[in-house]
Amino acid sequence: MNKYSHLVRAFAVAGAAFLFLGIFQAVMAPDSFGQYGRFRGDHILEASSLPPLHSGTDACLECHEKEWEMEDAKHANVPCEDCHFVPGPHAVKGSKDAQADESGAEKEGLGKYTRVEKMPVDSSGASCRRCHMYLKSRPAGFPQIKNAETHIKDGWKKQMGPVDVTTSCSRCHNSHFPKAFTKVAI
Amino acid sequence: MVYSEYHLPNDLHLVWSLMIVTYPFLSGIMAGAFAISALHIAFGVESLRPVNRFALLVSFAFLTCITLPLLNHLGHPERALNVVIVPNHRSAIGGFGYIYMVFFAILALIVWFSYREDLIAEAQRSTGVKKALLNAVLLWNTNIDDEIREIDRQAVFYLTAIGIPSMAVLSGYVGFLFGSLKSNPWWSTPVMPFVFFVSGLMSGIAVVTLLYLYLGAAGYLVRSYQCLRTLGALLWFSTLGYIILEGVELLYFYYESSDAWFVISTLLLTKLKISFFFLQLGLGLGVAFLLLSAMFAFGVDEPTFAKVTAVASVFLLFEVWMMRWNIVVGGQLFSKSYVGFREFHPLWFEKEGIAPAIAFTLLPFLVLWIVTRILSVREAGDNKADIPAPRKDAGHESY
Amino acid sequence: MSQEPKNMKDKKKRNRRQFIQAAAAGAGAMFITLIPKPSLGQRIHQIEPMDRVPDWMDHYYAFVIDTTKCIGCGNCARACKRENDVPEGFFRNWVERYQVTDTGHVYIDSPNGGADGFPQSEVPGNVAKGFFVPKLCNHCRNTPCTQVCPVNASYETPQGVVLVDKKTCIGCGYCVQACPYSTRYIDPRTHTADKCTWCFHRVTKGLMPACVTVCPSGARVFGDVKKKDSKVKEIIDTKQVLTLKPELNTEPFCFYIGLDKW
After folding, report:
1. ipTM value of the model?
2. Per residue in C61-109, pLDDT tens?
3. Distance CA B169, CA A102 (A)
4. Fold adopted by B11-377
5. Per the CB < 8 Å rule, is B138 touching A6?
6. pTM, whole model, 2 decimals?
7. Are C171 and B75 in contact (CB under 8 A)?
8. Chain A contact for B91, CB < 8 A?
9. Which ranges of C179-230 does DSSP label H, i.e. alpha helix?
């Protein structure tokens, strides 16, 4: 062994460690890395593969078209899911959907049905106030209710009886056709 | 416009907490200790000879432990190797894996070359398993003569020469990490890498000084007034450098008075009033700098010098830790809306709590103790028998 | 095939033929509609996870938010939480309310990110102007978050969407610090970074992001700027739009109409 041999051995060990690091990196890197760019290519497929939860208004309209048949449908632009949300495929009991399953079991290819006895909706008026309660920050032209009491025209007041902020709007308004008033309960 | 308090919703959760305060604290000590060794080896500062190898050991012990607080902080420490498997070279943390490994290799080699002769002697004296292990560490090469000693010295010299920039990068990249984030005005300044580097030097020199004073008094290291004076002077210079950098940073923030000045000034005057001005600058930096300055200006005798330097070192270590806290946590006490502020109080026993932080801070000292069972703290050729025992009748004169 | 009918008899024959053809076609159509087929809703949920629209890579998406139309109902924040299973206290999508009094005092709030709507506010003074600003990940072109991710877990797809690979992410939190808009968070359940993905799993199937789907006022517009007739492209090209914190040069691809000083 010459006088430099320990030097050579020491640096060889260090060099071997870095070489091992390089090999380790090459071996362990995921196969799809770099496929589409500097990222694990499989992930872009995974990310686009999650199931969607919201169906959108068009999907609801296929069965519920009569809800929008009136000319003056002020709420036509309001997505159904704002007030009635059911995640995933659903069937209302007794609906024309032939595959509605009473037992609520899993339907092939569709996932578990959410059994809905009645379309879920909050009739207390909270859904309505969510958008229509008067807030200074809302756009000027947007219909807002400043005061529940003054909102009601004088002619109706006697029939309506006492009204406050917790009164349900659907006492007078049809939720889908808000300008068409329902019969006022006496 | 006067804005009410508003905190962006996601900002209510603090992401970088005590572990990210502990990590730069430890890496700074590692850098400062290496700097002491480097001054002796590469720049020929002879007065630092007594602490040369000991500083190397301190640096090495801290280097082995600095990744642990980071691993504890990660959401998925088991995937930590992704940093070297699929690294992003544009990312500062992405570079950390390589920077750390390079410096680890350099420092390991320096320690190996520095202690070869001691290990060879130890291997010759041992038998059995211990001998086999020592031979393996020596890579089965036990050659030693004057020529080889010279080769070893040169190897250490050149390794230290490339080790200095490597150490600077390893301790300064944390500052770069913070300083390059335009999203956070308290962090975003080009001065940040230098602030971290110089404060790291300060803390490393302080730790080595304190340990040197203790080991010197206990008789394990050669007591040298010249060495102590050099350490004290280095401490003073690095403190001065830090004051200048920090002062310049604050002056620029104040003078430029740019869009973020409102949030920075409010942060400093409300949330960080005590921890920044009183604790970090006043107590930590101010007291230490005044003590050191007075000591050098007025000239004191040896025992007083030792005591003052020890006190100053403790204050400076405290200051450096507070500085890490004020930067890392302070930068998250305000929201990116620039008009919201919050408090932060770490718990004792959570994942990144006070107890783990203390444990990670004490761990390098434990590693150092273990390493010194195997490797001598003294300079090559200095035997314990050569060190004069402390004079029992000296009393307060001898430290 | 038709020569002009010469007389009334031929005319009647033609009319009869046409009627029979029409009736046959109509009956055929009726028969077809009687065949049970899944509704659009079912078909949406029946979409196999891998069912992307063909040429799903060949799009370049952009988002426009019109704050002059936003009514602050918070349906977007609520829908996003449902669609993407966002944990409590963290937000991929939120709405802020701004109220500016005539003395120049600005009050900003975002109760639970706006997911439950906004309550009546009690700000002192007379509110001269107010508006809502919905916020989400801006999917910047010069992203600070993908630049700093150490493991390339945060990246930009060819469609311009910035995603987080949760299997690679180590949870260091660097991207959360780097985002100037605070749109990122560390999910406490998966311990990885997370953020708005523009509902990548929906847009690649030809759907709109959940927040756009449920917006009642048309404040949110999403689309492909590569398509010549897209609404988003029209707005960006013709209207005066702004982005958040433009001075930081992150080049967000989420454009705002009606931003005010912020």
Report:
1. 0.88
2. 999 999 999 999 999 999 999 999 999 999 999 999 999 999 989 999 9
3. 68
4. Formate dehydrogenase/DMSO reductase fold (1.20.1630)
5. yes
6. 0.87
7. yes
8. no
9. 200-203, 210-214
